[in-house]
Amino acid sequence: MLPSRLRLAAALLVPAAALLLSSGYWWSQSLAHQKLLDTARQAAEHRAIQLASAVAQQTDTLLQMVDVTLQTLGNEYVDEEFSGFLRSVSYARASFPAVAEMQVSINNAQGQMVYSSVGLNHTISVADREYFRFHQRTARSGLFVGEPLLARTTGTWLIPISRPMFDKRGFAGVITIGIAPAYLLQRWHELQLLPRDVVYVIRRDGSYLARSLSLSQAMTEREPDEVPHPGRSGRRQGLLERDSDFDAVHRLIGWQKLGTGDMVAAVGLDLDAVMSPVESYITQSRLRSVAINILLLLVCVLITWLIMRLQRHRAMLQAIYDVLPVGVVVTDPQGHIVDCNQMSEQLLGLERKVQLSSDLSRFEGRLYHADGSRMSAAELPGMRALLGGELVHHEEVGFIHPAQKAMCWLSISAIPCSDAGYGVVIAFIDITHSRNHRQAVEHIAFHDALTGLPNRRLLSDRLNQALSRTARQPGRLVVCFLDLDGFKPVNDKHGHDAGDALLMEIAKRLQKVVRTGDTVARLGGDEFVVVLNGLGSAQEMDDVLERIAAAVATPVELGASQTTQVTASIGVAMHPEDGDDADTLLRYADQAMYRAKQSGQCICHFRREGRESVVW
């Protein structure tokens, strides 16, 4: 009986064990599938937010460039420097590609268009336009981005970006730069989106500025009320999942407010396209699980199949790991490098075998902070994560590539992984190109395009810094306002190229005669400002002013046999005698310059009312 009972027990035990194993397998697969779905969803959310942030930063940069151009053109037009204004318009239009269809227009205080870069064939009024009514109503300086409109000059869709103009009588009109929405679409092509992914920028009122899909329809419609934007949400960024009103595509939308807070950049990812590969993988996995349960009775075959499957998965994961566009380095708890992928070899210029025979201390003194200083061992992102448990996210680090012999810039993230038996996982990408592009844009925004000198915006910042230093350190701060005498005849006689050459030469001379720490800026046209810091005496100020006047008056060669000479009317204002803030000092120096020009003298020092002027 016993053998029979044992056989019965064994017969029952085998299906029970098979059922138990099958149930355990199905349960583990369900958990893995859910984790895979969650991971894919989180990756999609992270990518949507990242792309929206990139679009917002890109759009902010464009608006900053347009704002600087508007201020420059508006100042030149109000100051009646029409020839300089036309040159600046040509330069501004040349800086945009043809697809931007960039247009510049000037509208007077009554809303009548008095200038257009594409020409005026008939009288055009913009008094009914949203942007004109906004500036006329608010009567204060500031940038305004209007809803897209059909231009009355060309009949094409344009995004109007405008600023008000003011003269001595107050509101003098509006200067506008129009940019085609298609220009924004061209800038979004590098985002590498799927066919049904969408990128768009909307305003506070829900009107579209641009949309990568269904653009013509979007120009005449507004975003539904349930979509968050500045007027409906206090957050800077967020996520939304909804069906599109344009094409009924179900999308995951990441959105980010622009710096001004008046607009939102959004990227909608096609969720079906994002999740389809994962769901397809899960479906295939479930079918394989059915096959595994069928083959469970054949233990040897099952074990062999599992081993082969494990090998395939290992090879697939290794292939994915090696083709990632991100460099990855993994260390043990002691900081020794135990693994790295192919991209890390390319970015660091170190072969895999060299990395695996090293530890993180190898990079001591080889990485640099954003300010150019070397990192110590304790400051390395990987060491901070390894020893201090710090999470490092997208830190900019300089690195001299062994092959290129030049400074490259990496964005490094480091995550401690002690719970997994490792030390730290370090991921990094090359951001050299984007960093250089960002610095170039910042230079354009704060420097004069012709001479390379600081412009009005950077001058204001430098002057405020100098006032702060003067409060802590002895010495006198002097602001000099220069206007060239005889510059217009040079333009009339020799042409604008000669005038530009003269301005560049004067800029170089002024930089040579001032001291280290002083500032030379160009406000536009033939006007310059020099800020002198820490002067010890009136005689020292006189010496510097004489050098400035002599440098300007020295003849300038315009060609092989052409020379010319100009002089400068210089107005001087001193801190604290003439003012305690930057605007007051600049205004008094400007007034002093005009008094010098009217009196025919070289230098006129303006003092406050009730005290005498001094003329040299």
Keywords summarizing the entry:
16 helices; 616 residues; 6-stranded antiparallel sheet; disordered C terminus; 44% helix; alpha+beta; single chain; 24% strand
Q: How many beta-strand elements?
A: 25
Describe the largest sheet: 6 strands, antiparallel
Q: What's the overall average pLDDT, rounded?
A: 84
Count of DSSP helices? 16
| Class from secondary-structure proportions | alpha+beta
User: What is the beta-strand fraction?
Assistant: 15-25%
Percent of residues in helical segments? Answer: 40-55%
Distance between the termini: 130 Å
Q: Would you give an account of this structure?
A:
With 616 residues, the protein is α+β, with helices and mostly antiparallel strands. The protein is 44% helix and 24% strand. It contains 16 helices and 25 strands. Strands 1, 2, 3, 4, 5 and 6 form a 6-stranded antiparallel β-sheet that branches. Strands 13-12-17-16-15-14 form a 6-stranded antiparallel β-sheet, sandwiched between helices. It has a 6-stranded mixed β-sheet with strand order 19-20-18-23-24-25, with helices on both faces. α1 (2-78) packs antiparallel against α2 and α1 runs antiparallel to α6. The N and C termini lie far apart (130 Å). Mean pLDDT is 84; it is low at 608-616.
In short:
This protein has 616 residues and is of the alpha+beta class. Strands 1, 2, 3, 4, 5 and 6 form a six-stranded antiparallel β-sheet that branches. Strands 13-12-17-16-15-14 form a six-stranded antiparallel β-sheet, with helices on both faces. A six-stranded mixed β-sheet has the order 19-20-18-23-24-25, sandwiched between helices.
